[in-house]
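Extended Data, panel c. Modelled sequence:
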Amino acid sequence: MIDVTHQVAVITGASRGLGAGIAARCLERGLRIAACARTQPALNGAAEQLLTVAADVTDHAAMTQFCEATVERFGRIDLWINNAGLLAPIGPLRDNDPAAFARHIEVNVVGVFNASQAFIRHLRARDGEGVLLNISSGAARSAYAGWSAYCAGKAAVDRMSESIALEEADSGLRVHAVAPGIIDTDMQAMIRDCTPEQFPRVQKFLDLKAKDGFSSPAFVADRLLELAFGPEGAKQPVAMSLPLEKG
């Protein structure tokens, strides 16, 4: 594996699920990590290697302050992973609660805007290179009945990422919207609890659980680090998907 020791990475939504798994693997690989979530992430790492903060991605000022605190602690940021996101509301759009739909877009789209802007401004201020990885989904590229909010939000992340790539071509920033594959998190449990009326494709995810067809967070983290710091990363398109750990 490539040596990523002493690189500095930020991970949002790192209190559980994929975000927590990515953060843990990055710490194992020797990166210095700044991790945030609405509740302060409980991660194990040496004090000189880890910064954890309770910060909501929907709060623009909080994301700016989180970025500044990371730079003050570690001197710079090399990689920013926007992982924080919601799945709910699930079900036909006609039945969605408007407030839940609006909250979804606030977290999954506005949250990516807030965090991305903080990182981009940091890069331009220090005149350096960096990589922005926005966690997307296959649902950005293929519609699912029952997931109108999730499909819309992730599609917006893909297009936002492509626009950022064009805007920041001269700034040293590289950006990717990455569909990470299917990982067995609380989000997957929520999917499996759906009725076919809420989510007609639920059986697909029940079958995945039965055959343990998931990628692990550590596998995803290693692929993301290869993308960010490996020699082939710059050749990848902005909107892309990771390979599956299990075929």
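The chain has a mean pLDDT of 97. This feature is highlighted in the accompanying rendering.
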